[in-house]
Design brief:
The protein has 712 residues and is α/β, with parallel strands linked by helices. The chain is 29% helix and 17% strand.
């Protein structure tokens, strides 16, 4: 929506909400502050459940397009694609919602208020929920999340298509097993420089309708009961005008984990008084008691309910004339269409990162390699395609199936599961340890080339405790390949056949051995329901890899601070001093681009600094280059060069094109130790290229980014 029109319509909806709420009893209002809000028939209010998920597609509500998990979408570095995906998700959401309403289905996961996107910073590869995020960089996270929000919410002047929710506010990224009691201690500088910018972008540019608080405390305050975060920063400083929801069970943690209050009534009052309007849970039932005790006023509850009903009115829930809302006309036929499936395939192809391609082993030739072995526990796994908070696809294409479909009639494909994903045998009822080893050796011996598909799935990295990760709260203990996977990879390499490693995981793994011994490596993330087809297209050259890493791949955990340390020192590409195995922003392709003739006009000012250069595709095939702009302030103890802009530039074979970036003044600013944003006088370097300007990226790509010096 246009900003001024948005504010105007919000005030109209608020006034309608106030009139409706004035007719409710205290008990009725309290019941509306919980995620599963009951019907109030006498007022024409239907039951509504705010609990709905759409991180990478409509989730947990039946058939829907399952796009790549968010970390994979982040690897596209393509914010226009991100908005297209958001628009597709909201179209399917409206189609499903309109159908469900026609059958009076108001169950959980059947609404239009989506608790997505997750914009937390993936600061440590051990965090189990990191694959739900857009990676480790605040600028990229903010841009991708903001565009996804715009896609979800639509651009109508009067109605929201769906309501997006930026989560988890704020300073939240594990450990999972401590989240109900953990206090994330963070400096003011790190808070403003790293943990808050993406949320600010989502609120101020994306106009996110909702924000979800985090489980943890931040600097002593429970996030879902933080006056600083929810009132001072979110509403008063950033001008947020939507509603705030707690994470599920987080209000109970006020007295049961964080010990910041003593009773449920005090917890409920703290939430409402701090600006948390909606509880996912049942503690807000105690608001009635809290009013009686004088802990909270009925007027404060009124304001929370007004915000909640304003959102529902923006969605068109209380319109008598259904012809006014353009989204009411979207039917169930819009779900899982060929166009949706094609967009999903495009997103999956763009997400895949080529990490290594020694002697141009890829793309594979079906003539040169007439027998292809496919080995590994993730080769034929649907679970490894989808990540978490996923929907149900009408068809899944695993890596094995994608390869089989692609080479059908031209190659023979041999397959072995190789090993269990994390246990020491496949058949635990009767098998011996490493019970597929002989089959692995046989497949390798009979094959001309071997694709080994390893990694993780969301049963290993995710939320809280699972069997697969040893009950450590969904987080990883280390960066090693679990179970017997490393042994299987080494067996394949010992065969002497060309080996291609395909990694399906939502986080960085220790690929040091593979980097030394495996000639070709693809990072496929959790690539969605069409992932196997996309990976086959990359393996055989139908598509040219263009994904870039949204996270750093470290060499080992010893390089990192403690998981519970929220200081950014030594973390992520922005603050690390050691050399990465595979750096943030890195990715290879089957062609190369050259950068030349850089020039600058203007200066660091409110009008912006314009940078121009010539980009040339040096290869014989079309390619989309991911142009990255990094800025480094030269004086003082400042972060490494930081990403400040990205452009996807499509070039035909041998095509040259002039590319222009206009860098806003704020791209050169940094927050100081008091949290004050400053654009300091002095020298700055602007780097432009297909990667960040660190030594490891230059060594891996063989290319130096352009470097321009400017002064403020």
């Amino acid at each position: 929506m246009e900003l001024t029109e948005n504010k105007k319509m919000t005030e109209i909806y608020k006034e309608r909400a106030r009139r409706l709420i004035s007719r409710m009893t205290l008990e009725e209002k309290v019941m509306q502050t919980m995620n599963s809000a009951p019907a109030i028939p006498r007022l024409g209010i239907k039951a509504y459940d705010y609990s709905n998920e759409a991180l990478h597609g409509v989730a947990r509500a039946g058939t829907a397009t399952v796009f790549p998990q968010v970390i994979g979408l982040a690897a596209t570095f393509d914010e226009e694609l991100m908005e297209q995906v958001g628009d597709a998700v909201s179209t399917e959401a409206r189609g499903k919602y309109n159908m469900q309403q026609s059958y009076d289905d108001t169950d959980t996961y059947k609404g239009l208020t989506f608790w997505a996107p997750n914009v937390n910073i993936f600061r440590d590869p051990r965090w189990g929920r990191g694959h739900e995020t857009f990676g480790e960089d605040p600028w990229l996270t903010g841009r991708m999340a903001m565009r996804y929000i715009r896609g979800l919410q639509g651009h109508d002047e009067h109605y929201l298509k769906t309501a997006a929710c930026a989560k988890h506010f704020a300073v939240h990224s594990g450990p999972e097993d401590l989240r109900h009691e953990f206090n994330a201690e963070v400096s003011v500088q790190d808070l403003y420089e790293t943990y808050l910018p993406a949320f600010r972008t989502c609120v101020r540019e994306g106009r996110a309708e909702a924000v979800m608080g985090a489980y943890n405390r931040t600097n002593g305050e429970a996030c879902c009961g933080s006056r600083f975060l929810l009132t001072g920063l979110l509403r008063e400083t950033w001008g947020f005008d939507g509603h705030v929801v707690s994470d599920c069970g987080a209000v109970k943690d006020f007295y049961d984990g964080h010990m910041v209050v003593s009773t449920p009534a005090e917890a409920a009052a703290l939430g409402i008084n701090s600006g948390c309007d909606l509880e996912c849970g049942h503690i807000y039932l105690y608001l009635i008691e809290a009013v009686k005790q004088g802990l909270v006023t009925e007027e404060a509850i009124d304001e929370a309910v007004v915000r909640l009903f304003t959102t529902r009115m923006k969605l068109g829930f209380f319109d008598k004339d259904k012809g006014d809302n353009p989204y009411d006309s979207i039917t169930y036929d819009a779900v899982d269409t060929p166009a949706m499936q094609e967009l999903n395939l495009t997103a999956a192809r763009e997400s895949i990162v080529l990490l290594k391609n020694e002697d141009s082993l890829l793309p594979l030739s079906t003539k040169r390699y007439p027998v292809i072995g496919v080995i590994g526990p993730n080769a034929n796994s649907r679970t490894a395609l989808v990540g978490n908070y996923e929907g149900t696809a009408s068809r899944y294409v695993t890596v094995l199936e994608g390869i089989q479909d692609f080479v059908k009639g031209r190659c023979r494909v041999l397959y072995s599961e190789g090993c269990h994903l994390y246990k020491d045998r496949v058949r635990y009822d009767s098998g011996k340890e490493n019970d597929r080893l002989s089959e692995v050796k046989a497949v390798c011996a009979a094959s001309d080339a071997v694709v080994v598909c390893l990694g993780l799935d969301a049963l290993i990295e995710g939320e809280e405790a699972t069997e697969a990760n040893g009950l450590i709260g969904g987080d990883k203990k280390d960066l090693k390949l679990p179970g017997l996977q490393q042994s299987i990879l080494e067996t394949a390499c010992d065969s002497g056949k060309p080996v291609i490693l395909v990694m399906l995981s939502g986080s960085a793994m220790d690929l040091s051995w593979a980097d030394r011994h495996v000639p070709a490596i693809l990072q496929g993330w959790y690539p969605g329901a069409a992932g196997g087809r996309a990976i086959a297209d990359i393996l055989f050259g139908t598509a040219n890899p263009e994904g870039r890493l949204p996270i750093t791949f470290y060499r080992n955990l010893e390089e990192l601070p403690a998981f519970t340390d929220y200081s950014m020192k030594g973390r992520t590409y922005r603050y690390m001093r050691q050399e990465a195995l595979y750096p943030f922003g890195y990715g290879l392709s089957y062609t190369c681009c050259s950068y030349a003739a850089p020039r600058i006009s203007g200066k660091i000012s409110p009008e912006g600094l314009t940078v121009r250069f010539t980009l040339t595709n040096e290869g014989e095939r079309a390619y989309t280059e991911t142009v990255q702009v990094y800025i480094k302030r030269c004086e003082g103890d400042t972060p490494n060069a930081q990403l400040k802009d990205v452009r996807k530039v499509h070039l035909a074979a041998r095509e040259s094109r002039e590319v222009e970036f206009v860098l806003p003044e704020e791209a050169f600013g940094l927050y100081d130790e008091e949290g004050i944003f400053r654009i300091s006088p002095g020298e700055y370097r602007v780097y432009i290229g297909g990667s960040q300007p660190d030594a490891r990226s230059i060594a891996l790509t063989g290319m130096n980014p352009l470097c321009l010096q400017v002064r403020k």
